[in-house]
Design a protein that fits this description.
- The complex is a heterodimer of chains A (about 280) and B (about 325).
- Chain A has about 280 residues and is mainly α.
- Chain A is built from 9 helices and no strands.
- Helices cover about 35% and strands about 25% of the residues of chain B.
- Chain B is built from 12 helices and 15 strands.
- Chain B has a 6-stranded mixed sheet, sandwiched between helices. In chain B, strands 1, 2, 3, 5 and 6 form a 5-stranded antiparallel sheet that branches.
- In chain B, helix 6 links the parallel strand 8 and strand 9.
- The two termini of chain B are about 40 Å apart.
- Classes of the chains: A mainly alpha (about 280), B alpha/beta (about 325).
- Chains A and B meet through helix 1 and helix 5 of A and helix 3 of B.
Chain lengths: ~280, ~325
């Protein structure tokens, strides 16, 4: 069943279109930055983008920062929201279940497909960004300057530096990027779990995707609200940006660990709810 | 093959299926009749484990459902509320996906009895055979979204037949087909039935059931109001239908036995057509046709569904 679901994902044009768009945005940004040599000053714009002029190898991290706030969650929510509700809407859910495919088995296959999609999206963004970065900004640690007056510790040295100003070897960058990729993938899995749960509730794929996005936006709003500080540490998007800490020296683990923990709880709770609901619901689509 | 006892489904306060006791025997061609919204589809969904019954029990192929639904469904082919497929894929790709979704081995496990089901190795051949069977043998690789309604219906039927099931559960199988197609599918179902497949199909087209089925169950407002062999249902009414150009003379001659006259068609009390014919001819009445009247399925359905449903009550009002 897992193979069937993966085949469906791969043969669906939408899967590739969404990943193509995800990969395209960082490339577009890179082209502009490379042509103009105008990176946003540190602390403004997407994280790490200011640093890429010093080394193209940092660009994957910058690219993830570009797609993370909106595009990546949208893509994941759309695919996850479609998983059960899409089959229900197309009328194929009843035929799958009557084939028979066990409900739990179907849900597990959908989940594994979602993990595959999320990983593929994050990894492909990273890979295209790496290639783009190396081609446009060079692979070697270069003594680039931003040309601007901002004398920041980021662009001070002759090598790519961490946010803390220490130099990074290419291997170091790769390792930190890997950490960031895994953290972002897990964060997206939290989004996927919420959307998958909603997908078992409604027969509208769009509704499930929008519902998940609404939850994320609510979370984003509450994160910035001091009055909501009581629930702040438990919000799904609270630690989304903690992966930047992989690029500090030494790596600041506190928020990274909390981020993993929060996402894990969301994944478990919503998958459990999705299973409990889907296994017992009347399929009338 | 299918036995339900006291099968009941309630959605909140709405009673959709009420104490249905179905009995479909092996080798039956069972017609499941009822007006739209009478609960036919809900019963079928419960049989397939899609909808859970509020109370009552279902036994499918000798096993309780939904508890053992995974064991019996590989031997069941189903078409529920119209065919559905992945529109961006071809018919063949759809069948292959559905077949793969059901697992790569049939019931009975690997090395089990050859019977129903099928493995991955035979998939391509089974798909081609089944497409041929439903009249799509020459189909190209266009995506299903460009199929006509009738082609989709045939593809849905192919999906149901893919694993040579022992029991076919078909909801409105001839929807969207032209008369030629309806006839083809009817012939196919009879052929499959004669080869040992039990066929359970729902329809609100009485003519279709009358021509195809050996046994019927009639539901009305969620209740099974009648379940009988078609032959029994269509029992003689004890009257004869006479067609004659000399209706006036016949009326005189039969004096009071004519219950109804409709131009040259007379409805005469008494089912002995031979004696009646002799009497008419002896009296100089030319007879162009004479048959014992049987109840039509329509008569039966209208008579048993007259209680409860608003739609039928209004029809009664018009007649009186």
């Amino acid at each position: 069943m897992i193979r069937v679901e993966l085949a469906k994902l791969v043969r669906r044009p939408r899967s590739w279109m969404s990943i193509l768009l995800l990969c395209g945005l960082p490339v577009l940004v890179a082209v502009f930055v490379a042509v103009t040599h105008l990176a946003p000053p540190p602390g403004q714009g997407p994280a790490l983008l200011s640093a890429v002029l010093s080394s193209g190898q940092l660009y994957p991290a910058a690219a993830l920062a570009i797609v993370l706030p909106i595009f990546l969650p949208v893509a994941v929510a759309v695919v996850a929201g479609d998983s059960i509700a899409g089959e229900a809407g197309a009328g194929t859910l009843r035929y799958l279940l009557a084939r028979p495919v066990g409900r739990t088995r179907l849900l597990v296959a959908k989940l594994i497909t979602l993990i595959a999609y999320t990983l593929a999206a994050v990894v492909l963004v990273t890979v295209t960004a790496y290639i783009t970065g190396v081609v446009l900004f060079g692979a070697k640690p270069v003594a680039a300057t931003s040309g601007g007056p901002t004398t920041s510790n980021i662009i001070s040295g002759a090598a790519a530096t961490t946010l803390s100003g220490t130099a990074m070897t290419p291997f170091d960058i790769a390792l930190r990027t890997l950490g960031a990729v895994s953290f972002i993938a897990v964060s997206m899995l939290g989004v996927a779990a919420i959307a998958l749960f909603l997908s078992t509730i409604t027969d509208s794929a769009l509704g499930a995707a929008l519902g998940a996005l609404a939850a994320l936006i609510t979370s984003e709003v509450l994160v910035t609200l001091n009055a909501a500080s009581v629930i702040n540490p438990y919000l799904p998007t609270r630690y989304w940006l903690a992966w930047i800490d992989f690029f500090r020296d030494p790596v600041v683990w506190r928020n990274i660990e909390r981020g993993y923990a929060v996402q894990l709880v969301y994944v478990l709770v919503f998958l459990g709810a999705a299973w409990a609901h889907f296994a017992t619901k009347d399929v009338t689509s | 093959m299918i036995v339900t006892e006291g099968l009941t489904k309630r959605y909140g306060h709405l009673l959709v299926v009420d104490q249905v006791d179905l009995e479909v025997r092996e080798g039956d061609r069972y017609g499941f009749l009822g007006p739209n919204g009478s609960g036919k589809t809900t019963v079928i969904r419960m049989l397939l484990g899609l909808v859970y019954a509020t109370s009552g029990s279902i036994t499918l192929l000798g096993k309780p459902v939904p508890k053992h639904v995974g064991d019996v469904l590989p031997s069941v082919g189903a078409l529920v509320e119209g065919p559905s497929s992945y529109g961006h894929l071809s018919g063949r790709a759809n069948l292959a996906l559905m077949d793969a979704a059901g697992g790569s081995r049939g019931p009975g496990g690997p090395g089990g009895p050859g019977g129903p089901g099928g493995g991955r190795r035979t998939r391509r051949r089974r798909i081609e055979d089944t497409l041929e069977r439903v009249g799509l043998g020459g189909i190209d690789n266009r995506p299903v979204k460009r199929y006509s309604l009738g082609m989709r219906q045939r593809l849905g039927l192919a999906a149901a037949l893919l694993r040579a099931p022992r029991l076919l559960i078909l909801d409105e199988p001839t929807n969207g087909l032209d008369p030629q197609g309806i006839r083809e599918i009817r012939d196919l179902l009879v052929e499959l039935n004669e080869a040992g497949t039990t066929v359970f199909l729902s329809s609100h087209q009485l003519g279709e059931i009358e021509q195809l089925c050996t046994r019927v169950g009639i539901v009305d407002a969620g209740r099974l109001v009648r379940q009988e062999d078609l032959e029994t249902l269509r029992a003689p009414t004890g009257r004869s239908v006479v067609h004659t150009p000399d209706a006036d003379r016949a009326l005189e001659l039969l004096d009071g036995r004519v219950e109804q006259r409709d131009a040259g068609r007379l409805l005469v009390a008494g089912a002995d057509t031979a004696a009646l014919n002799a009497q008419l001819v002896a009296g100089g009445v030319r007879v162009t046709g004479i048959t014992a009247e049987r109840r039509t399925l329509e008569d039966v359905v209208l008579s048993v569904t007259s209680s409860g449903s608003d739609r039928v009550q209004r029809a009664d009002g018009e007649r009186s």
